[in-house]
C-alpha cells in the first residue's frame, strides 16, 4: 500500500517533468500556437526577404512586438508580401518603416520596425509602404569582388600614362 503511493507520486513527478520539457522546447522553437496576446495584422512588401521565415520575430528598438504570420509572392508585382501580427499594445504610425535585419553576422533574420512621425496610427490590415529588403551576403560579396577586380584592372591603365 505504501509503495503504491510512492510509485504514484514518482509517476506524477515524471509526467510533469516531461510536460515541462515539451512546453519549453516548443516555446524556444516558437512553435506554440496558444497565445493570450491580442494582435492585429499588418502587411509589408519587400523586393527580397532573404531567409526570413514564418514566425520570425518583429522587433522595434530590439523589443519583440509581433511575429511574421505568412509570406507570399505577389503574382502581379513579383514582390514578397509579408503578413505581420503585431501586439495590440504597440501602435505604429502610418509612415512607419520596415526592414529585414539579421541578428549578428549569420543569425536569424527578423523584421525591424521604425516608428514614423505621422500622428495617425496604422489600422488593422494596413500596409507599411516604406520597406528595405534583406542584405544578401552572397550578393554583397559578389559586388565587393566585382569592384575589387575593376580597381585591379584600372591600375595598369593609370600606370601607363606619363
Describe the structure in your own words.
- This protein has an 8-stranded mixed β-sheet, with no helix packed on it.
- Helix content is 31%, strand content 30%.
- It has helices spanning 2-28, 137-160; strands spanning 39-46, 57-60, 63-73, 80-87, 97-102, 109-114, 126-128, 130-132.
- It has 2 domains: 1-32; 39-143, no CATH class.
- The relative contact order is 0.16.
- Strand 2 (57-60) and strand 3 form a beta hairpin.
> What would you report as the Rg, rounded to the nearest angstrom?
24 Å
User: What's the mean pLDDT score?
Assistant: 86
Tally of DSSP β-strands? 8
**What ranges have pLDDT less than 50 throughout 5 or more consecutive residues?**
none
Query: N-to-C terminal Cα separation, in Å?
Result: 105 Å
Order of helices and strands: HEEEEEEEEH
Portion of residues in beta strands equals 25-35%
The biggest sheet, with number of strands, parallel, antiparallel or mixed sense and barrel status, is: 8 strands, mixed
Number of domains: 2
Work out the helicity level. Answer: 25-40%
Shape: extended
Secondary-structure-derived class: alpha/beta
Question: What labels describe this entry?
Answer:
2 domains, alpha/beta, 162 residues, 8-stranded mixed β-sheet, 8 strands
Furnish the topology, listing elements before pairings.
Elements: H1 2-28, E1 39-46, E2 57-60, E3 63-73, E4 80-87, E5 97-102, E6 109-114, E7 126-128, E8 130-132, H2 137-160
Parallel strand pairs: 1-7, 2-6, 5-8
Antiparallel strand pairs: 1-4, 2-3, 3-4, 5-6
Pfam family, one: MlaD
Keywords: Membrane, Transmembrane, Transmembrane helix
Domain Mce/MlaD: 38-116
